Amino acid sequence: MNRLITISAFLFFVSISLDAQTGIKFNTDFKNAFVNAKKENKKVLIYFYTKNCPGCDYLEEEFSNKSIGDLYNKSFLSYKFDANTNGKNAAEYYNVYSFPTMLFVASDGDPVYSMRGYKEGQEIFDGGKIARRNGRDIKKLMDKKYKDNPKDTDHLNNYIEYLMIRENFGKAKKLSKEYLNLRNNIEEAEWMNFVLDYASDPESYAHKVLLEERQKFYEQYGKEIVDPIIFGSIIYENAEKQFTRNATEQERAFLKSAASKGYKPDDEQVSMFYYNYLFSNAGLTVTRISGRDKDLHTKYALFALENEMKGVDMETLIRTSVYLLKYHQRQSTMSNLNDVLDNKHKQSPHYGLLDMQSVVLYSLGQEDLAVEKIQQARELAVRSKIRDYRPSVTTFKKEGIIK
């Protein structure tokens, strides 16, 4: 399956650099990554990480090793993305949901190998030697190592990951059960991480284990980590029926399934998850919504606003702001939204938040403050080397959303 045609549509690009003089050199021109990889006869390494991730921090220390750098710089064009910000869409596109993850991709855009979780230097070096081979040789090697020793849990873990990125889901699901049943041979933390990595499939053995031992996983990881995986499995479970239902029917089916798994429909975790699910749709800001579907989206947007958008990423916050400006432009709502945007910008400054705040202030009739925010947004965009920033208030005025 060739992914190169569509991948550029999913990515939000920013400049990234690595200060270390030795080790892996990370590039910044991802827009041309696959074109350059083909010219240079290399593969592309996409390293996904998140903030406040100890495993990611440890892994990056290993990246500074000279031997690793020599191998990787010769064989790969390397890029790194924060999976919660500039790399969110790419991570979702490649089904990468645990971090850190090193994904090796051929010049046609197809993944050929992957390493998930913290790896020591020798593992990173050996993984790079495998990933630089052609796809046929990688398959032979991975298959042979499994056949030679099916109970080698380290390789079995890597083999399942390889099967997943190659979309051999049937075999991966079968071997996942074998791996989990070797529990006594695996470190408990590694075994539990594996469960979380694969439990989003409601038909998987990992999902069954997670439900049966949910309390233990709560104690180890917290509800904020475990519950979204279970909620995501409900979305996955109902996916085939979603196209024949309107948004209100989809919500009803989701809440019914959540209740069957022990959750209350008005639980804050349930509501915040479903809010994020509804507003993760990039087409939402350009799609006209009417009737009960609009009421549903408004209900969840207001719920998230009342909860001060806790844990909501910037992209989803801006999308929600656009929605409320189009469909629920009440003074109390806009005032609360202005406060949330202001607080989010103070926590993590970004010109996009200032830009959206300017539109909200215009809707409140506070034009002088709005112009001030636009100027601040422009200055921050320039400092961030964004040369093509244009105030969104102009578009909102043209569309008649604000006066």
Q: What does this molecule look like?
A:
The protein has helices spanning 4-7, 33-40, 54-63, 66-75, 88-93, 121-131, 135-148, 153-165, 169-180, 188-198, 205-212, 214-221, 223-237, 239-242, 247-260, 268-279, 291-306, 314-327, 331-347, 351-363, 367-383, 393-398; strands at residues 43-49, 76-82, 101-105, 111-116. The N and C termini lie far apart (48 Å). Mean pLDDT is 89; it is low at 1-21. The longest helix has 17 residues, at 331-347. It has a four-stranded mixed β-sheet. With 403 residues, the protein is α+β, with helices and mostly antiparallel strands. The protein has a domain at 347-403. The chain has 22 helices and four strands. Helix 20 runs antiparallel to helix 21 (367-383).
What attributes characterize this protein structure?
single chain; 403 residues; alpha+beta; four-stranded mixed sheet; disordered N terminus
Give the topology, please.
Elements: H1 4-7, H2 33-40, E1 43-49, H3 54-63, H4 66-75, E2 76-82, H5 88-93, E3 101-105, E4 111-116, H6 121-131, H7 135-148, H8 153-165, H9 169-180, H10 188-198, H11 205-212, H12 214-221, H13 223-237, H14 239-242, H15 247-260, H16 268-279, H17 291-306, H18 314-327, H19 331-347, H20 351-363, H21 367-383, H22 393-398
Parallel strand pairs: 1-2
Antiparallel strand pairs: 1-3, 3-4
Helix pairs in contact: 4-6, 7-8, 8-9, 10-11, 12-13, 13-16, 16-17, 18-19, 18-20, 19-20, 20-21
